[in-house]
Structure formats: C-alpha cells, structure tokens
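Milestone M4 deliverable, item 7.
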Amino acid sequence: MTAKTKTKPLFLGIDTGGTYTDAVLWSEAGGPSGKVLAKAKALTTRHDLAVGISGAVDAVLKMAGTDPAAIKLVSMSTTLATNALVEGQGGRVALAMIGFAEGDLARDGLKAALGTDPVVFCAGGHDVHGNAAMLDLSGLEAALPELEKSVSGFAVCAYFATRNPAHELTARDLIRDRTGLPVTASHELSAKLGGPRRALTTLLNARLISMIDRLVAATEGFLAARGIAAPLMVVRGDGALVSAAFARQRPIETILSGPAASLVGARHMTGLDNAIVSDIGGTTTDVAVLDGGRPRLDPEGATVGGFRTMVEAVAMRTFGLGGDSEVALEDGALNPKILLGPRRLVPLALAGLMHGEAVTAELERQLRAPNPGRMDGRLAVRTGVPERLAAGLTGAEAKLYELIGAVPQALDRLLASNAQNATLNRLVSRGLVQIAGFTPSDAAHVLGKQANWDPAAARLGAELFARKRDGRGQFIAASPEAVSERVLTTLTRLSAEVILETAFAEDGLDGAATVAHALVQRAVDAHPGIARLSVALDRPVIGLGASAPLHYAGLAELVGNDCLVPEDTDVANALGAVVGQVRVSAEARVSQPKEGLFRVASGESVRDFTDEAAAIAAAEKDVRAIAAGRARAAGTDSAEIEIASEFRVSTVEGQRMFIEAHVVAVASGRPRIAV
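Output delivered:
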C-alpha cells in the first residue's frame, strides 16, 4: 500500500452474524464505488464477542498493512437480534402494562411472545386525547424486590402512551430508582397506536438490550485496545446508521440490521436498481426487494420470528433456513422428506474443530451401536454467556444446566426422559445452551465443497443420519455422500421457494400458500406434462452470503431468472455497513379534544393551543428540534431535515372541521468521522 493511500480516511465495516464475524476495510478512493482494501472472517464467539471481532479485524489490518489510526469511522451490522427472535432467545424480562386488562395479552401475539416471563397490570393510562386516568403503581412497587432478582430488564407500556407518556415515565423512573435495571418505555420506540403490538415491541426490545450491550461493549473494548479512535455506528433495520449509544437504548431497531446492510451492499456492488436480494447465512435466509435502487420498507413494521413489531425496517422476509440449519426427517412417511430449520445447530464439523476427540468419540460410539438412536448425532454445550443471564431458572432447568458444561455432551447420555428434552429446549431458547448436530454445512464438508472445519466429524454425523429409517424400515440413504447430496439439493430447492414466496407476497398474494400450491410446485420442478407450466421472476436475484456460490449455483433454473453472486458477496453486510447514512425521524400529533382546543403531543410533552395554525407551527418546531437532537445522538452533525404534515378534516354544512394532524420530520446525513 502506498503512503498516499495510508493518509486517506479509511472505513472499517464489521458484521457479527450467527456463525461468522466479517470485517472489511474500505476507502472512498478508487472510483465512484470506492475500493475494498481487505476482507476477512472469523468465527462468532457468543461467549465473548470480542474474540470473533478481533480475529476478523486484526486479519484485515494485517492484510492491508494499515495503521489503525487511519481508520476514521467504524460501522457494524449484526444479525444477533434477528437470530435471537427467530430462535426465541433473549433475556428474561418483566412487562408492566398500565391501563390494560389481562385479555389484551391475547392480541397481536403478545401472550406467545411473553411466554413464562412475568407481567404486572396497573391502573392508569390515558385516552385518545391524552387525558389521564387514575394511576396506581402500588402492585408494581410491591413486585419489584422479587422481580429484581429474576429478570434482566423491564418493559413498560401504558394505554395511549403515544398521546401522553406521563404514566410510562413515572413507572420507568420508579423501576430505575428501585432496581437499577434497564427499562424500555413503549413511547420511546413508536408513535403508532395499537397498545398490545407496541407492548410486544417494547418487550422484545427489553430482551435484546443485554445482547446488544455486550456486542457494543466488546467492539468498543477491542477498538480501544487497537488504538482505533473512531466513532462506532450500528446499522438499523431500515438500512440507516445510528451511533452505538443510540443502538444500546433501542436494540429492537437493529432487528434486520444485517439484512438491511446487505441490501445496501448489494446495490453498491452490482449497481442494479431492481432485483430480489437473498442473503443466506448460518441461521437465516433474508429475502427483500430492491425497487428503483432503494429497498422496500414494511409500512406495518418488521415481522421476525413470527412476531409483527412496530419497528420500521426493510420489507424483509426472514426464514429459518441457512447453512447451519437443523437437519431433520419427516415423521411417519414412507419416503420421508429432508426437513431444514428453523433452529440453528452448531455444525458437527465446527464442534469437532473446537472440541476434537470429545465430539468424534461420542459419534463413533453411537455408530458402533447395532441400531440407530433417536438422539444420535446430537450434543449439548453451554454458550458461555454470563451467569447472571441464567436468573429465574426453574428447579428442573437449573439441575440440567448444571450438568451441561463447556465440552459438548451427547444427548443420549445427558437426557433420561422426554420431559428433560423439553427442559433442554427451554435452555436453548434462553440462549444458555446450544445443540450441536448435522447441518448443511456438514453435508458440504462431506462432499468436499467446504473444508474450513473438521470433515471427519461431519462425515460421522452424515453416517449417523443416513442410517435413520424410512416408513418401510429401510435406511434413508446408502452412504454419507448420498444423504449429503439430498441435504444440499433440499437447501437449494427451499431457497427457491422462499424467494418465490417473497415475490408472491409482494404481489399481494398469500406467499406461503401460493408456493405450496400443486401448480406452482409442478412449475418449479419443470414437471413434464400435456399442460406445461413455468414460473419466473421479473428481475434477477442477487445472492449474498459466504455460502451463496455453493447453495445458489442451481437457483436460476428454479426461479426463471438470472442469479448474480458478486465478488465480495461474503462481506456484503460489512460493506453495506460503511456506505450508508444516518436517518432518524420524529413525530407529533395535533388533536382537538373539544372545539377550539388543539392539543400537541410531541416527544414527552403535551401542550394545548387555542389556534390551529399556532398548534401546527408548534408541532413542526418541536419535531424539527427533536429530529435534530436525535440526528446528533445518532451520529451526524450535518443532517438535512424534511418536514411533512398530513391532515384529517371533514366538512360539515360547508365548514371545514379539523380532526387531527400528523407531523413528521426526517433528518438524514453522513455520519461524523474522526478528525
């Protein structure tokens, strides 16, 4: 590298995925698209994220021969929050519902999301105009001493808090004063109506705080140790950048962060304005549409792990399908299908690389058994997260957790009953334990198409899976190679199906039902017949992810259009993280509780005016100031602010009647860089 290049500002992009952490060093020099100077990967280390981050970043610094002081901006995307929601993981939190009834838990999937986490109902809340009911937090106050011992944080949602957040603020301050634990209030995340869905979003945010906090802390610690004194940014779910401090308080907004960054990266690498982008990782496949050079946003909020949130994000459909997906067999069929996902397993090849004989010895023991066992090829190991995150375990969970250590243990020796298997699954859902087992990544190792981990452990896993029985009592495959081919073929076929499902859904159809229809299945299979059917996309597919060249090699013929896999597809997320910009918004509502009174609800304030024009002007001034402040907090000093107002009015006997106004300010700009 020349001395001239060294003096130019450099940008470091990091993507922390479920399996790998990627790093890319990028410079604006080198043409309109800039230049990738170096890229590298390292395994994501969930027990200590700094290990994986340092492995990837140190590699690119060494490769480029770069002085760390030349790096002026660090930007990070992550799939950790997305994966956590898909896999049902996250810290145990308490939900405080103010002004709601227990029946409200049944709406918008809130009860399912809550699971066994505690909920406290309190009297209070506001009406649609922000008028307060009587607040009573005595029940919450009485529960705090016990809750403090068993949860990692709190979520607070009050009735119509978007019109007046006063009761949420009171509850938030009470909880912080008494427990010192993180608290998320619903009005901080969304200005939209719909209490139960806002409560769901707040609950998920509270669960993710400790995870994102560990990620940011690990990254900041590494950067400081390397002498990189540059601002740290995080990619949000809509592709915009925000400061690390901003992301720490609102981690829910980082769901779909990795996929959003990949869209920015895909557009940057290919120059295509219209495409379907499919990003395959270890845990998930994320599919979205590029229209006119911009990703489509989901106006209803992002859906991840089956939960519809109020987070504005790319219109991304996330499927539990990836290189590390659990491989299973269809139950009860004469010719059972190979099933993949949605749960991620630690590939046996990776477990073998990390733990050696402890893994291969157990797999060899199981192979020596005369008959296949139901738990063959499965091992359990602790994730290594801090012990405080194991708070609130039941007696059975705590007992099993004690038996599981840092070295993988075979499930056929660890578990004595189906009840214990259910207990193990709960520990996995809490993010405390991981299961190692046969995955597509193992199949790729068996076939020599991947060689970065332990192929011997992968082959043993494939042998164990191949001798599972079909409905006739026969082995499902004649060899580990044969079953591995089936697994990889299934992954490519399912990849085509999730891409088509996304396309049909974008066209207003029921995507899953349409893809499952016999006619579409015949078209994808190119099934011969008197009536010939075909299905084709109107735009090419951009395949992203380190395994995209392998799994998408046969994709074009299944989707009826080209499939492009860019040169730097393996670091698309990390590249997208450094080429984006900061974008934040602020909203205000102006209502008319009674004739001649105009109420402005903006931020955490509620004010009344007797003149409509004065109220609108105040709302616009408020959102401009709030947006500017959020833009600074999000990491830019050069934000441009645009304001849009939407009015709801009616006409009565020829007279205009004001109903409501919605005022939105959007601030955007490039992130600040180190001087």
